[in-house]
Every structure is written in C-alpha cells, then in structure tokens.
C-alpha cells in the first residue's frame, strides 16, 4: 500500500465528459505520483453505457495509480435525484475513509462539497473547497431559481457551511476572491485561498498548421475561419453569438463559420439561419476531447459571449485557455471573471463592452487588423503559458495538498 497521503477527489461531473477529462483527470494524473488519490465521480448513464470508453478511462487512471469510484448520475426527479446521489456519495466516501490514513477530501463545486463536509464531520480530514464559482447565484442569474425560493436559501446556507468549514479554498478568478467580503461569511482565520483558473494542457493544445485532411473534410480550405467551440446555450448568449457571427460572415472576405459542439445541430442550424448566417458559410462538427486541438487549429478567430451577472465574477471559461494555447485570438464580452482584463492588458483579443449591432460593426476594423498581425499566435500562446498552463495549476494544487497534509512539497510530474 502506498505511504503517500490518501486524498479523495469528489466531482459531480463525470470523468467521461469532456469537462471531467480536461479539468479533473488531467490534473490528477500529474498529482498522483506524490499522493495516493481516489476519485469519486458521477457518470451520466449514456457515458457509462459506453463500455469501451469506460474501459479506456479505467486503464488510463490505473496507469496513474488512481483509484476510480464511478457512481451513476441521476437527473430525475429534480432535487430528489440529487439528494439520492449525495446519500450514495456519502456512503462510498465513508467506506473510503474507513480504510485508514484519510488526509484530504478535495471537493469540486457544491454538490461534491456536501459529501465532503459530511466526511469532515466524522473523520479527522482536511476539506479543500474548490468552489468553481458562486453556484447558488448562478442558478438565480440563469433563471432556474428564484432568490426567494427554498432551493436558493438552502443552497446559500450550504455555501456558508462550505466557506466556514473549509481548510483551504480555490477560486477560478481574482474577481471571485474580491467578492468574498460581500458574502459576509466567517471564514477561518489564515486559511489559504488560491486562484487557479480553468487550465489547459499546453502539450496538447499547441499552435500549428491547419490539418489539410480536416480542411478538406470541412470545406474550409482558403477561408477565414471564425469558430465557436463547446456549449452555446445556458450561460452562453447564443442569440448574440450567432448575430455577431452573422455580422462577421457578411463583412469579412472569404469567411466561414465553424461550430464545434455536441448540441443539437439541426436546431443550431435553424437558429443560425434566423440570425442571418447563410448555409453555405456554416460548418458544424462534433469532436472528442482528443480531437479538439486539431479542430481549434482550423480557427482564425474564436468567439464566445457569456451572460454578465454577479455569479460570473467567479467564472473562467475552459475554452479561453484552449483558444489562446492553440494560438487563436478571441472576441469576448466584458464582465466575466478576469477574462476581459487579461485580454486587454495583453492585447491578444477584442473585448466588447456591449453586444449591440453598433458594437459589432465597430469591431470589424480591429478584427481585420488582428487576423493580419504576424505575431498574434505567438502572443496568444505566451498569454496562455502565463495564466492557463496546466502544470502551473497542478503546482498550486500540490502546494495546497502539501500544506493540508503537513508533508514536503513534491513537484508535480
């Protein structure tokens, strides 16, 4: 049995999802040489039914000496299903802790933290609250809950518990940390608070030539490619994004729109047409996480807009680091975490203060200048290396683990 400190990482996102693979597995593989890591995750039924992907992930984690405890995620009925998942998670977490030498429970976001604080209440174990944003306020800002609702009030009480019980806290943004005093919680004196954004594996997401085979298959040869990747709904301002893409398609020579997403392509195409994007200028594809770097390299300009609200002060879009690491400049809206400030300070993108037709038109000249700039890809890469390097994020987690376990810091592999 390993003599390294035993750590349990809890994620309500599945490891078989692109987010879980990039933002959980990638980190834990690099931390595992210094820590005896188990990961408890909740896998979506459609992912868990894919026996080949399950086996591949099991093998990948086994190679890193990570113990995987996959539980099934339940969606229905709302509320009760989450409660059921929490109860099952607490049971499995307690079995893990009873095996002995439990040192740290690292909880990703709020549902995982309910399991973690249950573990901390019984066992002598340190709790790392990896908050990932202000989840209760996200539910209100997203229109899913009312601020007067029982769901919101209960979740805010849980949030207070997480902040006041935590032995360390991780925020995705400095803007999120600066908002902590507004919560008026009694955080324990002297606990470490670290800013670790959603990082990118710079060994996978790298600049390079556009793949000729992909260009041929997508019909993008000889075109200026404006791209969107991943989610285009929920927090993402789908209509504004499509209207801006239509503006670029109309006004930039040889422009085509590439959308890489697992969302409903038929509905998305219909929405794009209504926004003014001609069918001949629209390309939609699906891609696995492994395929994403090659597809992003096809893109000349990345675009995404996110709803501006209090909860998004603590947010950092994964796709920002992936675009920049691959050498792709972006057009985004202001007011989301630290993103606008970082881009403006380093002049590697365009930050729109408003999402109106006049603002779209005003951005055309800067966009044209940006795509012609010979050093733009290099400067994007340099910014990604400074702010979004996965290895740097892992080193920060390793330092927190070392402080919580009282062990010497071991550099991540």
Commentary on this structure:
- With 413 residues, this protein is of the alpha/beta class.
- It folds into 2 domains: 6-197 and 389-405, Glycogen Phosphorylase B (Rossmann fold), CATH 3.40.50; 212-387, Glycogen Phosphorylase B (Rossmann fold, 3-Layer(aba) Sandwich), CATH 3.40.50.2000.
- The chain contains 19 helices and 13 strands.
- The strands form 2 sheets. It has a 7-stranded parallel beta sheet, sandwiched between helices. It has a 6-stranded parallel beta sheet with strand order 10-9-8-11-12-13, with helices on both faces.
- Strand 9, helix 12 (265-275) and strand 10 form a beta-alpha-beta unit.
- Helix 1 (18-31) packs across helix 19 (390-405), helix 5 packs across helix 7 (150-165) and helix 14 (318-325) packs across helix 18.
- The longest helix has 19 residues, at 80-98.
- The model has no long low-confidence stretch (mean pLDDT 94).
Number of domains: 2
CATH classification class of the largest domain? Alpha Beta
Fraction of residues in helices? 40-55%
Structural class: alpha/beta
Q: What CATH architecture label of the largest domain applies?
A: 3-Layer(aba) Sandwich
Q: Uncertain spans, ≥5 residues at pLDDT below 50? A: none
Number of helices: 19
Q: What is the CATH topology assignment of the largest domain?
A: Rossmann fold
Mean pLDDT equals: 94
N- to C-terminal distance: 21 Å
CATH level 4 superfamily of the largest domain: Glycogen Phosphorylase B
Relative strand content: 15-25%
How can the largest sheet be summarized? 7 strands, parallel
